Automatic annotation (TrEMBL):
Highest taxon of source: Bacteria
Organism name: Pedobacter hiemivivus
Pfam families (UniProt xref): DUF3826
Protein name: DUF3826 domain-containing protein
Keywords: Signal
Signal sequence bounds: 1-27
Length: 224
């Protein structure tokens, strides 16, 4: 993938939308937080184990507002709003997932900015990462572990570079609603990581091939 998904995100046209702060009353222009979103936002804030109830509530509110804006944009801009066509980079026809990513990537940048500013106002960098990991079900650590398993002699410099790519993927991915979309965003940065390894004197294809052969051999040995 990845050229396709990369193209999809670039294609989004950014527009401006503004909402008022969280308010239980259904007043005009106020954003209404669905119950399931509030439950998830509360779970995320609780994971931080903050000893400041007011701070925890602010984080819950910031996350709930962001999740609701992402959900509302997604629901108001289905894949059908994007014309059928091809990716001019690859020539492949746009899939429904491709078109949904295009539609969702057009969400105003302010939605993401408000989330990050709200988190950074009250939290340490490590705590912000905890919230982003909740959004993406720990895909940074999981994917990094995969690279370490495949590239057994990964250097500290290589690890730092790849980790940087994965953290970029994580921050971008929080603005997408489905796990399929989140995985597609990570694929963009996984492709960058693999290109980095290739440019750094390694062959990703050979490394991955050796790894899959090793796994198959281990499975075969267990059956004996």
């Amino acid at each position: 993938m990845n050229k396709t998904t990369k193209f999809l995100v670039i294609c989004g046209m950014m527009a401006g939308i503004s909402f008022s702060s969280l308010n239980r009353a259904h007043a005009q222009n106020d954003i209404v937080i669905p119950g399931d979103v509030l439950v998830k936002a509360t779970e995320y804030a609780t994971a931080l184990k903050l000893d400041d109830a007011a701070k925890s509530k602010r984080i819950e509110t910031v996350v709930a507002i962001h999740m609701t804006k992402v959900k509302d944009w997604h629901n108001d801009h289905p894949a059908t709003t994007v014309p059928s066509g091809i990716n001019p980079v690859t020539g492949n026809k746009l899939s429904d997932l491709d078109k949904q990513i295009i539609a969702d990537s057009a969400m105003p940048a302010s939605v993401h900015q408000e989330l990050m500013e709200g988190l950074r106002k009250d939290l340490s960098p490590e705590q912000v990462e905890t919230i982003l990991d909740k959004y993406t079900i720990g895909k940074v650590a999981f994917t990094m572990a995969g690279y370490k398993a495949i590239v057994t002699d990964l250097t500290a410099a290589e690890e730092a570079k790849i980790l940087g790519f994965l953290k970029e993927a994580r921050e971008m991915a929080v603005d997408y609603k489905s796990m399929k979309q989140i995985s597609a965003i990570f694929e963009i940065y996984k492709t960058k990581a693999e290109q980095f390894l290739n440019n750094n004197g390694r062959s990703w294809r050979a490394l991955y091939s050796d790894y899959t052969k090793k796994i198959k051999a281990e499975k075969a040995a267990k059956k004996q």
